Amino acid sequence: MPTLSLMPPEFSVARDDNKCIKCLACVRQCGFDAQKYDAEDDRLYTIDANCVNCQRCVSICPAGALTIYKNPPPMRPNAHWTEGHLRNIVKQAETGGVLLTGMGNDQPFPTYFDRLLLNASQVTNPSIDPLREPMELRTYLGSRTEPVSREERKDKTKTPLVPIETPIMFSAMSYGSISHEAFESLARAAKAFGTLFNTGEGGLPADLYQYADHAVVQVASGRFGVHAGYLNAGRVIEIKIGQGAKPGIGGHLPGEKITAPVAATRMIPEGTDALSSAPHHDIYSIEDLKQLIFTLKEATRYQKPVSVKISAVHNVAAIASGIARAGADIIAIDGFRGGTGAAPTMIRDHVGIPIELAIAAVDQRLREEGIRNQVSLVAAGGFRSSADVVKAIALGADAVYIATAALIALGCHLCQKCYTGKCSWGIATQDPYRSRRLNPEIGAERLYNLLRGWSHEIKEMLGGMGINSIESLRGNRLHLQGVGLNEVELKLLGVKHAGEAM
Amino acid sequence: MKKVYARPAYCMNCHLCEVNCIVAHSRSRDLFRAYKRENLRGAARVIVEERLPLSVAVQCRHCDDPRCVAGCISGAMVKDPETGIVYCQEDKCVGCWTCVASCPYGAIRPGEKNGRPVPLKCDLCREADEPACVAGCPNRALVFEERRAGA
């Protein structure tokens, strides 16, 4: 380690002494040791270099005495050598390591959701008022190949459809990467709202099996926590191939996060690093994937639909086609805005493609091949609002996964330091002093409210389009028009430019 | 009777219950006046005990047979027969601190108000619907509810 750090503090904390009552709540709540109290001088001060701008102190201060400022860039502005690049170089010069980060891609790539606009009915077909008319948000996940019949199913290998009361599910966040309290909040809210949460690759803690009927149980390359009871307890099984935040990269939960309960859930020794390799070592082809899909279906007597989660990458449509043909019931596609607890910064920011383009391309390809009915498509990766959800469904998704939005509802302020395990909000930590800051009762209420609010808004938007069922919107791209998009983008998205005749 | 119960699993050691208690028992009932003018620091009737990572807010249990009431030499400490709230009639207190010594929970502390001795103890915010510590707890680590004996 060099003795002189060239890394200037990124943030400064300003304390209004006229307001500060010296209750020391900020000192006790800062997870990163940025707030200090000098008892001898009865003085509060800040170590700016430690501040990550998680806003915990600002939120907890009863006097409203704290404000966090972003420090100006340490060098003269330069459009090519941005502050981010400078900081990264300094950090690597001091550590020699791979740059790590948390949460999703924060680079200024285009967000296509912001360049798509929704339709609204006028006189030719009337809009619907969801406060007066029934509006159906329930959707069904799974394969729909079987013709409707009164007779008993002939094909015993078909798995049942899974209903969800809103087209929004909680995406994969493993126990270990997030606290038990955060995990329980997701499980409770999913059950209360009638949707699904996703266990991620860390298994399902024993005390949360009561929520298993609302769980997507994940099978990742590490196979952590996977056993027959786990598979049979969940509602849907998901094979995780890729993750939007780090396509082609495996998972790595450091040993210090593998506390006794996490170790018991993951079925690994306490304190060992949980390494989930980049590939599944039994999957090197679509045929191999098919074997795993049917192994899981066989293990669960064909009662659980199997989802395959991939990240949105180049040629995603062909990959999805192969997955559909391998027998998956659901394909989850995670765009490059997808979050994570820890990823190499360069991978997170530069690998993958936007979910809008991926979902449109996959839906289009599966339709062309006549196999769209065999799978449900779930879009994931950076959904910020109900409008994003509606647009994704119009582009071809059956439902969406949200995770970053859910964490924000729980208190996350996107400080991007999940990988340190010091989360001041009690979300991305296994430290019992920090994790107890998230009361699952409160967390579940906040998540429920988020789902409720978004669902109401989706109903309003559907009503405005003159549609009374979310399933009628799926892939209905006539309800989207682009703004400021070039011809290639419009073609890939399958939408016309705003103002163009239908 | 309804009492304040602590849920240590969700106590995050922020000590805001103490802040809320101090404000609720201040003259002005204003955060800034209470802290900046009234010199009430340390006057909370609820005390957060820490043994990190655990912490728990301790306040008067309003015992069925309160030792502080039995021990009070001036008859200042009484238990309201209707509400069950144990409180101090401050004008009668002589500051012998027998109540402080006799409380098995350590929930009474010696204090001072207008130059007179006052035991600092929880009165369940007698005039409010809900004690200030419970109302202001950011993580619902304190609840105000009726529980059956032994529950």
From TrEMBL, chain A:
Positions of [4Fe-4S] cluster 2 binding: C30, C51, C54, C57
Keyword Oxidoreductase applies: yes
Biological process, per Gene Ontology: glutamate biosynthetic process
InterPro entries: 4Fe4S_Fe-S-bd (IPR017896), 4Fe4S_Fe_S_CS (IPR017900), Aldolase_TIM (IPR013785), GltB (IPR024188), GltB_archl_type (IPR043578), Glu_synthdom (IPR002932)
Domain 4Fe-4S ferredoxin-type: start-end pairs: 11-40, 43-71
Record-listed E.C. numbers: 1.4.1.13
SUPFAM superfamilies tied to this protein: 4Fe-4S ferredoxins, FMN-linked oxidoreductases
Molecular function GO labels: 4 iron, 4 sulfur cluster binding; glutamate synthase (NADPH) activity; isomerase activity; metal ion binding
Residues that, per the record, bind [4Fe-4S] cluster 1: C20, C23, C26, C61
PROSITE patterns per record: 4FE4S_FER_1 (PS00198), 4FE4S_FER_2 (PS51379)
Keywords: 4Fe-4S, Amino-acid biosynthesis, Glutamate biosynthesis, Iron, Iron-sulfur, Isomerase, Metal-binding, Oxidoreductase
Coiled coil: none
Alphabetized Pfam families for the sequence: Fer4_7 (PF12838), Glu_synthase (PF01645)
Catalytic activity, reaction form: 2 L-glutamate + NADP(+) = L-glutamine + 2-oxoglutarate + NADPH + H(+)
UniProt superkingdom: Bacteria
PANTHER family, per database record: ARCHAEAL-TYPE GLUTAMATE SYNTHASE [NADPH] (PTHR43819:SF1)
Family: Belongs to the glutamate synthase family.
Protein name per its UniProtKB record: glutamate synthase (NADPH)
Source taxonomy: Bacteria, Bacillati, Bacillota, Clostridia, Neomoorellales
TrEMBL record, chain B:
Gene Ontology molecular functions: 4 iron, 4 sulfur cluster binding; metal ion binding
PROSITE patterns attached to this UniProt entry: 4FE4S_FER_1, 4FE4S_FER_2
Any matching Pfam family: Fer4_11
InterPro entries found in the cross-reference section: 4Fe4S_Fe-S-bd, 4Fe4S_Fe_S_CS, ET_IronSulfur_Cluster-Binding
Entries under SUPFAM superfamilies matching the protein: 4Fe-4S ferredoxins (SSF54862)
Keywords: 4Fe-4S, Electron transport, Iron, Iron-sulfur, Metal-binding, Repeat, Transport
Residue span(s) of domain 4Fe-4S ferredoxin-type: 84-113
UniProt-listed CDD domains: CooF_like
Gene3D superfamilies the record matches: 3.30.70.20
Protein name: Iron-sulfur protein
The organism of origin for this protein: Neomoorella glycerini
